[in-house]
Amino acid sequence: MSSPHHDDGTAGPRTDPPQRPLLTLERMLEDLGSTFLAPLAEVPEPTRRVTGVSVYDPLDDMLVSPGLVVLGVGLSEGPDLVGVLREMALGGASALILREPVALEAATAELAGVHGVALLGLTRGASWTQLSSMIYSLLAEPAITSESETIDGLPSGDLFAVANAISSLLDAPVTIEDRNSRVLAFSSRQDEADSPRIETILERQVPEPYLRMLMESGFFERLYSSEEPVYIQLTSDDTEIKGRVAIAVRAGGEILGSIWAAVPETFSPEQMAVFRDVSKVVALHLLRLRAGANVDRRLRADLLSTALEGGDGADYALERLGIDDSPIAVFAAGVLGLRTRKADAAIERQRVADAVVVHLAAVHPAACVALLGDTIFGVLPVQSMEAGEAHALRLADDILARVGRRTPLAMGIGPIVSSSRELLTAREGARRALRVRMEQGDSESSVALFSRVHVEALLLELRDRVAAGKTTVTGPVARLWAHDQVHDTQFIETLRSWLDCMGDVSAAADMLHVHPNTLRYRLRRLAEIGDMDLGDPEARFAAQLLLRIAPELSAPASQE
Length: 560
Known about the structure:
The protein has helices spanning about 25-35, 80-90, 105-115, 130-140, 160-170, 195-205, 210-215, 220-225, 270-310, 315-320, 340-365, 390-400, 425-440, 455-465, 475-485, 490-500, 505-510, 515-530, 535-550, 550-555; strands spanning about 25, 35-40, 50, 50-55, 70, 95-100, 120, 150, 155, 175-180, 185, 230, 245-250, 255-265, 330-335, 370, 375-380, 410-415, 445-450.
């Protein structure tokens, strides 16, 4: 029996990853509800696809792609809004979101309807960062589910649908949270809860004061040690807090998270039984999400790795990643100061990589990021070859400002390339620039362009060759070092200080805390011992180079 053939000429069965169900405007409005969004005018095409999120910047040439949701930060009714609407329509954007309150004119609403762009309002109290993270969570979640795959009649892995179903069963607003009290999904009717719950939804994290109250009361110990729902009623002097019924979500002996319902009083025995049963359904969805996320993460990492090799498969890999043939920048990032166990360090690197993915998805949806080995690599389509470095540097600085506040990061950006065949060059440039930053020993987040640290990268590579024994230190500097070891002199340190001070005897003497005449004497002696002409620029350059690349010479000798 012959193997089936595909359009690309390959033989045999093809196992493509499951296609992601489309996120539509209708579902985005339904899931985010009045907590975040409300239509400012009739939505022209509710079933229109949402593919990404981007922030409007009047000073930046934004690439508008079909299905994009644009966050109109600072936009209001007027000529600017009309111009942006037309620009969004040309690129096929699905929606433009404005900060409420908005006094929208009928003509503007009509224009948006004609162009098929939904005008939505961000509710007061919600931030743009919160909204972009929420939309991205909806975009990312379906990547690992299938419309044809269900668990107890609900789409597999669709936690928002699960939360709404539980809310209907229990007649209470519900959140689903992970072990770190981060909100994974929430139901509608959150306006029926209280201010701590609204803040939890907005921040996607239980507020610190409320979390502290729960911990001090021992509630989490009760919650995670019981297989039954647990009720708690907290009190606050200045805030009305409803009671909560929560249950831990378990898979075997592992706790995956918890479900929380805001209620005026504890549940009836029948509701408690329902709550206990639905926790098992949520466990299945969380396990499905975890398994799918791992598959999706590995797939993207494999595709990105293939693309960065720059070989025959680079074009196909970029196409699968959704990256077009525009100029491309590659960045490499590393976590600074990791001194934990190897397993913990790997978890921390993956956490940071996921945070970079979430951030870039909101501001640069066309980017692709993955953790490859111990390094986070990213591919960034940029505007042009000429402005590419500046564009990539702005994005990197933004990543450091957002993600690097909690965990210090070092980043390197390679040269801008115009074809997939050059991606290996861009990757190596990014890796080398990253190493320069990592070797500097600075605990603060920072970024380096390879074009600015090329010489430093070459010095590090020469140092590697010397350390590996591929190059031996010889000549005047080697003779001086040997003399220092035998006679406990400081000729190497004297030479280094004098060279660093560009031959300024007074400055070098101050650096070494000796009299200038003492320094002049040492210089004459080291010139004799090393057989070195200090007046020869070539000899001075050779000495400076060896002092920087030879490991045994890189640390200053002890002072007498």
